[in-house]
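Hey Z.,

So I finally got round to the IPE thing we talked about over coffee. Here's the setup:
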Amino acid sequence: MAARSEIDSQNIPAHVAVIMDGNGRWAKQKGGLRIFGHQSAITAVRDTVEAAAELGVKYLTLYAFSTENWSRPAHEVMALMQLLVHTIRQETPTLLKNSIKLQSIGEITSLPASCQRELAEAKELTRNGNQMTLVLALSYSGRWDLTQAARKLSEEVAAGRVKPEQVNEQTVAGFLATAGMPDPELLIRTSGEQRISNFLLWQLAYTELYITDLLWPDFRRDHFYDAIQAYQRRERRFGKTSEQLTVS
Ligand code: IPE
Ligand code: IPE
Ligand code: MG
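And the result:
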């Protein structure tokens, strides 16, 4: 396992995104209910947030609840929402202490009122945090994001504030929920699943993917270091040849 000292502090990704998967399977292996897996995932979240902030990651985006997750059994959805309210309330003092700013992406208005309130309050309290921004993806999906961006952009065009020929990649990116954030350099997915599951579809265009078989509740800071180290060994070519990268 990678140690923190083996990490090149000059090559820390500015934005790391995580698909926190495998809570249900973890609980099943232990003979518990799925919600026990979700509850046990909080330790993994805390460890990852701390490790990322300490390394100097500027944005950490956690996929906490997808648009598709609304189709889960109602009792599981409700338990997840309650856990969300509880966790935000419990963790806000630590975020403040570590100067971490809380943000969210997703269709926040579809969340229960108590979640919206808790989230708004925590965002407000942590708004001056400048060590790292923790972005919670809640009721988020990549297609939702692209659709809402297309709608807002069409409104601008219809109102005559933007001309169709002015629409470029920057304009589109500026209407996405992640406007102003760099694209993730690294995506971590736990539980071995080799898919994107409708996460940041536009933003992941050139992201390095790191998939581990570990189930999310078992993920700890050393596993995060492993992912960063694996990222640091990758050659990011962006369409160029390997030779082109060495001549600057
Ligand atoms: C991820 O774990 C948490 C959420 C999607 C909310 P899962 O609940 O998907 O766990 P598995 O994939 O069923 O093991
Ligand atoms: C992805 O996990 C969403 C989150 C981690 C919140 P899922 O468990 O919902 O993904 P699929 O459905 O197996 O692809
Ligand atoms: Mg899953």
